[in-house]
Design brief:
The complex is a heterodimer of chains A (162) and B (479).
Chain A lengths: L1 H7 L16 H13 L10 E4 L3 E2 L4 E6 L8 E5 L8 E4 L5 E4 L5 E9 L2 E2 L4 E5 L4 H29 L2
Parallel strand pairs in A: 2-9
Antiparallel strand pairs in A: 1-3, 3-6, 4-5, 4-7, 7-8, 7-9
Chain B lengths: L7 H23 L5 H6 L6 H12 L2 H23 L2 H17 L6 H9 L1 H34 L3 H49 L2 H11 L9 H20 L1 H9 L5 H12 L1 H8 L4 H4 L9 H50 L5 H23 L6 H7 L1 H4 L3 H9 L5 H21 L5 H20 L6 H12 L2
Classes of the chains: A alpha+beta (162), B mainly alpha (479).
């Protein structure tokens, strides 16, 4: 079943590189040095956290981790700051993935921890909802189609004597 | 992974008991079938109670009991309200059912109407749309069965999916539409009772204030009435539901099967009774953050929350309700799709002039074949329920105007209907991939309307309704 989720949620390996950043060689080397010296990221259980998308227009997306292990004691930390100074913690229970929904516009950072020790890489997902103008245009288009449909049926019924 | 609240043994026992019950019921009712009309259309004599029950039970599907929570979990309060707008399709089909019965008193399928009203080209495009939709729905039902059993009991997805498909294929094969309608009646009683019970337990167990507070802090968009994707979803879902019902042979076969004075009332009452079901089903998804449930895939949120809130007893009730909902839709869809393939493809394209006996035999093979194909396509579990379901929205919404204008107005032409279905589907698919699943039906419906009106006005070839019933009657037996 783990495999089923993995198939279903198509991965984008975000790592700790933001979607907007280009991975230049210098940039990569810098991160490698940083990772090598950051022992909290390379903890005993080194999990690879990834997201189904790096840019969400609906405020929902799926987070997965590899290898798939029992996450009973894991916690997902979420923060709007890269340094996780104000994290929101979500116990993962026995899930093998987690679907995050209902987020408003912003950049969100995620990582896994256990016993207050970080055990995965950090990823970021940007939430940027559709504009209200676009939403309103589809809403009113739908409303106009609905009204046209009702009127067409009512007129048709009257004409055919039903 | 062990987040299940039922033991696998209990789940298997429920599956076996209810499965055997439905199959025995199908066998018992199937003995009354004497000919093709009995098998395909229950003798064209279904009364009001059974008619309303089958319409409601068929529309309460895995999509209502499992996708409504998913949509609520993803799109919030508007998702829940938007899903309940699916009832509009049933309510609006009420007058259409009366018109269909009058125009084609001896019709068998929705394809019969399209062929006689718009010609062969439109008929073939319509069949492609209809069959694509039928497979999408069948797969979503099979998947929902597997997901339900897995979420509540930990029984592997493939086992639950296989057993549920096997049960539904068996009793549909044995009893035809008569068995489908009769089991739907029993399943409706189970669904309504179960949903009321679950609603009571949810209200009793979950604090509204705590839920509201947690949602506001952790998932603010779920309560936001200006959630853009959810606003787009509202009329998209309404038009998707209308497209599903207006074009699908599931509903047309019932219009043919119900007594003339019954269809319109039955569809109207079924629509009214259906409205609260997705509201209740969707509402429980909003409790997930308060309960601290980590939802692996959003189409599992309904069973997971219900199991956690309601405990073992509640989980058993949810299991039975959703199993009944699944079965009531799966059997209807199997029967109606088999009818469409038998009448429009086997009799219409492969074996013209086939006798009723040959069609009856072919119909049974087709039901088995449909079950097998659905099983194969369900195996990979390619996507979530909502994504799969709303993908078909691009197709079905393009058929709304050809059906409505075709039933009531002389000016709608065959070429216009054909082009409108093609253009609507293409634009709906573009919207699906470029924007999201929540706009596919609106885009498809809008383009389809534009094309059918413009091309029909340009062609100016009025249709003669008087000849329709006569020709349809002749062609039904030899298309």
């Amino acid at each position: 079943m783990h495999g089923a989720y993995a198939q279903q949620t198509g991965r984008v390996e975000g790592g700790i590189i933001r979607s907007s950043q280009r991975a230049t060689p210098l940039f990569c080397v810098s991160w490698l040095i940083l990772l090598a010296t950051n022992t909290s990221v390379w903890a005993a259980e080194n999990l690879s956290l990834s997201a189904s998308t790096q840019l969400s227009n609906e405020g929902y997306f799926v987070l997965n981790w590899q290898p798939e292990v029992d996450a009973a004691s894991f916690t997902l930390e979420q923060s709007s700051r890269e340094d996780f100074s104000t994290p929101v913690s979500r116990p993962l229970g026995a899930a093998s993935a987690i679907t995050i929904t209902g987020l408003s516009d912003g950049v969100y950072y995620f990582r896994l921890s256990r016993d207050e020790q970080v055990i995965s890489n950090t990823i970021s997902v940007t939430v940027e909802h559709h504009s209200l103008e676009r939403a309103a245009s589809f809403f009113f288009l739908g409303l106009a189609l609905f009204v046209t449909l009702i009127l067409s049926i009512l007129k048709g019924n009257r004409q055919t004597g039903i | 992974m062990n987040y299940s609240v039922l033991s696998p043994g209990v789940a298997i026992v429920i599956l076996i008991v209810f499965g055997l019950l439905w199959i025995a019921f199908g066998y018992f009712l199937g003995r009354q079938n004497k000919n093709l009309e009995d098998y395909m259309l229950a003798g064209r004599n279904v009364g009001f109670a059974f008619a309303a029950a089958t319409a409601m039970a068929t529309w309460v599907t895995s999509n209502t009991t499992m996708t409504a929570p998913q949509v609520t979990y993803e799109l919030g309060v508007w998702g829940m309200v938007g899903y309940s707008l699916g009832a509009v399709g049933l309510l609006m089909f009420a007058p259409l059912a009366r018109r269909i019965k009058r125009l084609l008193p001896h019709g068998f399928t929705s394809g019969d109407f399209i062929r006689e009203r718009f010609g062969v080209a439109a008929w073939r495009v319509f069949l492609l749309i209809s069959l694509f939709y039928a497979f999408g729905w069948l797969i979503s039902l099979g998947m929902a069965g597997g997901i339900l059993v897995n979420a509540l009991s930990g029984v592997p997805y493939h086992v639950g999916m296989t057993v549920i498909l096997l049960v539904c294929v068996s009793y549909t094969l044995l009893g035809g539409l008569r068995a489908v309608i009769a089991t739907d009646f029993v399943q409706t009683i189970i669904i309504i009772t179960g949903v009321v019970f679950i609603a009571y337990l949810v209200v009793d167990n979950v604090g509204f204030e705590q839920m509201h507070s947690d949602l506001r802090n952790e998932r603010p968009m779920l309560l936001d009435l200006l959630f853009p994707a959810a606003i787009m979803f509202l009329f998209n879902n309404l038009l998707f539901g209308v497209g599903e019902i207006f074009h699908s042979n599931v509903w047309w076969s019932r219009a043919f099967a119900f007594r003339e004075d019954t269809g319109a009332r039955a569809y109207f009452v079924a629509g009214l009774f259906w409205i609260p079901v997705p509201i209740v089903a969707g509402f429980i998804a909003l409790a997930a953050p308060t309960l601290g449930i980590a939802v692996p895939s959003s189409d599992m949120v309904g069973p997971l929350v219900a199991g956690q809130i309601l405990g073992t007893t509640g989980a058993v009730v949810v299991f039975i309700v959703v199993f009944s909902a699944l079965a009531s839709s799966l059997d209807s869809l199997l029967a109606a799709t088999a009818d469409l393939i038998t009448q429009d493809i086997y009799r219409g394209h492969i074996h013209r002039g086939a006798s009723d006996e040959q069609c009856l035999r072919a119909g049974r093979y087709i039901i088995v074949g449909l079950g097998l194909m659905t099983w194969i396509l369900c195996l990979p579990r390619l996507t979530t329920l909502a994504s799969l379901l709303y993908f078909t929205g691009a197709f079905v919404a393009s058929a709304i105007w050809p059906i409505v204008f075709g039933l009531y107005y002389r000016w709608a032409t065959g070429t216009a209907a054909t082009l409108s279905m093609i253009a609507g589907t293409v634009c709906g698919l573009l919207a699906y991939f470029l924007i999201g699943y929540y706009v596919a039906a609106v885009a498809s419906c809008a383009v389809s309307l534009l094309v059918i009106v413009l091309v029909s006005r340009w062609q100016d070839k009025p249709f003669d309704f008087d000849s329709l019933a006569t020709r349809a009657n002749q062609e039904t037996n030899n298309p």
